[in-house]
Amino acid sequence: MSAEPAASPRSSASSPVRDTLATAVGALGGQQRDGQVAMAEAVASSMADRRHLLIQAGTGTGKSLGYLVPALLHDDRVVVATATLALQHQLVERDLPRLIDAIGTVPGVDTSFAVLKGRSNYACLHRVREGAPDDQGELIQLPEGSMGKKVLELRAWAEQQAEDGGSGEKDAAPRHTEKEWRQVSVSHRECLSAAKCPFGQECFVEQAREKAHRSHLIVTNHSLLAIDAIEGVPMIPEYDTVVIDEAHELTARVTQAATDELWVAEVDRTARRAARHADGDAATDLGDAADTLRDAMAEARPGRFDPVPEAIADALALVRDAARACVSAFPKQKDGEADAAFTQAKGAVQELFATAERMAAGSDADVLWMTEGTDRLPPRLCVAPLQVWGPMRDKLLADKTVVMTSATLMLGGDFSSVATGVGLKPTERVEAGSPRTKAPEGVEPWVGLDVGSPFDYRKQGILYVAKHLPQPGRDGLAQAHLDEIVELVDAADGRALGLFSSRRAAETAAEEVRRRLPHLTTLAQGDAQLPELARQFVDDPHTCLFGTLGLWQGLDVPGDTCQLVIIDRIPFPRPDDPLMSARQRAADRAGGNGFMQVAATHAALLLAQGAGRLIRTHADRGVVAVLDPRIATARYGGFLTSSLPPMWPTTDPAVVRKALGRLAGEAPAEQTG
Predict the structure, then answer these.
(1) What is the pLDDT of residues 186-211, one digit of tens each?
(2) What are the domain boundaries of the chain?
């Protein structure tokens, strides 16, 4: 089904949303775009009519204003959920303050807002001030330069935050590792609770929640939204509507939030902590169960368990039963008594029991697998939901009005793939403005709207498919692909972003370009932290940056820095990916096409995100070069290309090299064709 035209479903010469948006854009010195206006009015209609909305807004539309303005004008509380910390930071630190300054004089607009994150994202003042007896007894005695020094630095920072009225958020803390941060934070199971904690009145989490209860708009992340709405753990104050930005990542983030892991070392550690508090031999039995699990995992092969090996199943049942008995062995605390070590040790055992119970259950709704150990990480067991659309439909879509937006929601030319993945049925889609109906399950109907892009992709970009190259193999990049990469980069005189399916491929390509084009600067992901690599890439136009998934979705480099995006192959999931392969098989068994529903949809989404790195402003020009001929020759190629921005297509390498040469400065940039 095609998208609706880029026009507001309730277009009018004047409306509160349109007028407020115009006021905001004018005050911010920007330019109002038709797509932004259409988006704002569509979001307002969705909120008013209680209809779900999938709205694709291309890069440059100004979509944050397109949903923030109607959210502030809405009568009830609205939650905005993002996938990345970068967008969350942009909304809270830049977009919302500027918008509120611009429209603060508009009568009747509640501009109060707050940020909510999971408990472990905030420093815990109890742990900072009284330590964690089970973990930190000798920590601060460690030599200078060790983790102990960093923990002392984090403690001092947290105290300063408390004194200054700061948020105590992880993102504002001095640079640290995850292990170091865990020494100044707690999980929800380890928390003493505000009522029992002597520092409950100062608690950063409680203050954030209190502010959220007083606010009209709450900014959070996909994971916390999933925990609150789907897992039923109350984290967010009652709200009417949720706007999900970066919605193309929603199913992955919900899956991630619902994934549990189990390490043998964690079972051991939990048993040792419990031994200080639990009565009898319960903690010893839990430690023995850890040994049994270690032996079972040593005999098992990494990958998805289908079926679960008997030794693994028995070991998980043993850990589950031992953890249950251990929880029961903790003595009852007296009313008003608060012992951090006791609470945290018991919380760790309860968490371990919940994970082991889920893994031991062997539910058809879950996928269980074991990772391969590395030099840095031991093998671990993982369990994830086979699908998330059911819980999302039953527990989010049936209860709230949901607006989902992204630059890439239409895959294969329509919304069906994304809609199905989040729990919306194509048969429930309605035209904007049609009479209200409700599905039998109680889910509101949904509208799909593409407000287009302000960019002229056919004039600004070329989609080059290297049809003459061999199909990529499993052994990495062939010499023909390396030659093609070198020729393209040479024509572009650097200015290239390489997006590769594996770290090895990225490093191989980088080494080849360094050897054959030594006058250029070639960076590979892993040479430094991503922000530093991005800075170098922007500072020197004669630079290439090659990397993997972190660059496909997380890099925004407008201008001459990036005039060539190279994609080495169609980014299908690995055949041995335990979750993707299980989902593909389940789709086949249900009578569908697992390859198209899972693998091709996954690839289309990543391709669209990768190709979207090229055109970020009206002035950008360049080439997206896909070195996988299957996009031009395979039956599914049309589905993939229709998911990409509508650039001018070619398979002629000579045409592309000439175009890149002109862009590099040999002549004014012109569109070939």
Answers:
(1) 887 778 888 888 888 899 999 999 99
(2) 16-112+215-253+388-450, 119-199, 260-382, 457-666
